[in-house]
Write a structure and sequence with these properties.
- The structure is a homodimer.
- Chain A is mainly alpha-helical.
- Chain A has a single domain, classed as Winged helix-like DNA-binding domain superfamily/Winged helix DNA-binding domain (Arc Repressor Mutant, subunit A, Orthogonal Bundle).
- In chain A, about 60% of the residues lie in helices and about 10% in strands.
- Chain A contains five helices and two strands, in the order αααββαα.
- In chain A, strands 1-2 form a two-stranded antiparallel sheet.
- In chain A, strand 1 and strand 2 form a beta hairpin.
- In chain A, about 25% of the residues are buried.
- Chains A and B meet through helix 4 and helix 5 of A and helix 4 and helix 5 of B.
- Chains A, B: This is LysR family transcriptional regulator.
- Chains A, B: It comes from Paragemmobacter ruber.
- Chains A, B: Pfam families: HTH_1 (PF00126).
């Protein structure tokens, strides 16, 4: 339903008021950003983003109240999970090759 | 580095002694299963799976001690995270459309 990519997109839509601007900030095509928004809107009972196309300002997008709640809950999940599993995550990370060496 | 798919593949390799059998159980092509194993072996300092191709038994695969540790830690992370974020996860789930209704 939601992972780090979609959550970041949602936060950036809230900050920019634009799906395409939010996607662009993440190096995403306009089409992909829209697709992800549509996936989220389908997944949740209430839409997380509403948008208007065209118009004086060239259209815009808004994160709904439900979208704000989803974002808040998602961040709480990530934060609590990271705290609770900090020891095991650190052990796992210590087993990883240092970043950048993976392709060696 | 590791998500539910790779962790499950690792567990099934341990259970079956075969990368292709493990992948098949998950509806994965032989090529994809090998690719995922190679990604894991590159990501970690020590290989998580060792394999022999051909031979009397048609080759086989074994999860290494490092692989066992990775699997154990991954499961602990998931378990602790789910416990710690149970309330927020339940709230998020309640906001989702019932399964199967997403395509409606």
């Amino acid at each position: 339903m939601l992972g780090p990519g979609k959550a970041e997109l949602l936060a950036r839509i809230r900050d920019t008021g634009s799906i395409s601007a939010a996607g662009r900030q993440m190096g995403m095509s306009y089409k992909r950003a829209w697709m992800l928004v549509e996936e989220m809107n389908r997944a949740f009972r209430a839409p997380v983003v509403t948008s208007t196309r065209g118009g004086a300002g060239g259209g815009g997008a808004e994160v709904t109240e439900a979208g704000e709640a989803v974002l808040r809950l998602y961040r709480a999940v990530v934060e609590r999970a990271a705290e609770a599993a900090a020891v095991e995550l650190a052990e796992l990370e210590a087993m990883l090759r240092p970043a950048g060496a993976a392709g060696a």
